[in-house]
Amino acid sequence: MEINNILKLIIAIVVSELAGIIGTFFITPSISGWYAEIAKPAFNPPAWIFGPVWTILFALMGIAAFLIWKKGLNRRDVKIALSIFLGQLVLNTLWSVIFFGLHSPGGAFIEIVFLWLAILATIIAFAKISELAAWLLLPYILWVSFAGYLNYSIWQLNSLVNGWQTTCIQETKLCSDDSYIGRTGLKCEFTACPGENDDLWRMTTDNKTGITFQYSETLPTEYIHVVDWPPQVQILNELFACTEAWSETARAGKTMKRMVNDRIYCVTRVTEGAAGSIYTQYAHTFPKDNKTINSKLT
């Protein structure tokens, strides 16, 4: 292969992979936060599989684009085919922005229909120049077809049949000061409780596991400050689940769900008395890589 063609191949693959890299800026923050919380169908693949699949698909796209490019940009059909190819790359990135960035499965489904049509148009345009280039895009359109069905299923599971409004199963929430708050917005998110401020959540990294997480800097203990430091961190090989509870029993404690910087935290507070002192234990639980991370401090 000539050096000029090798350079073209590298550029074509890098440009294709770049579309995926841009998308990860919107995907990564939502994987452990918003995406972990929404309802998903039983056939939803594990989160780890998407990275390798898309890396391979973008590489195949780059090779296909190279096969067309090396035919010569002086040809009108080559220019048209590559223009359509670049257009579908933009639509590919835009889907990540809408679905993960804007948290809009409905809007993303509409967008992925246009993406699918753009991929089909690219395959048709490529086939007129290089059949191999067209065949290299076949896995791509098949995967996007599956992704479109998955997108539609997620949209339906998290929406009412006749609109975009998410079904709210709990209309009010009791705050720590015994006041009640309601839900606002299309996603049924609760208004912040009085005194709740994400800026008061401090970032820390566990030295043993290397896991970075946040905890509430201001802990409502009545007599003492935090004495158990650093927090005890456990990695549980199970999917994250959080059920809010309001001190039904002293042993169970009080559990509240918080969203801080696009990550869900399940905060459980248990208060016990011993030897004339009151001890309050806090557990901050959150999802990471299909596992549950639990940090405790007293």
UniProtKB/TrEMBL annotation:
It holds the Pfam family TspO_MBR. GO terms for cellular component: membrane. Keywords: Membrane, Transmembrane, Transmembrane helix. The keyword Transmembrane applies. Its main location: membrane. The chain crosses the membrane at residues 7-27, 47-68, 80-102, 108-127, 134-155. GO terms for biological process: tetrapyrrole metabolic process. It is found in: Membrane. It is a multi-pass membrane protein. Belongs to the TspO/BZRP family. This is TspO protein. It comes from Candidatus Harrisonbacteria bacterium RIFCSPLOWO2_01_FULL_40_28. The lineage of its organism: Bacteria, Candidatus Harrisoniibacteriota.
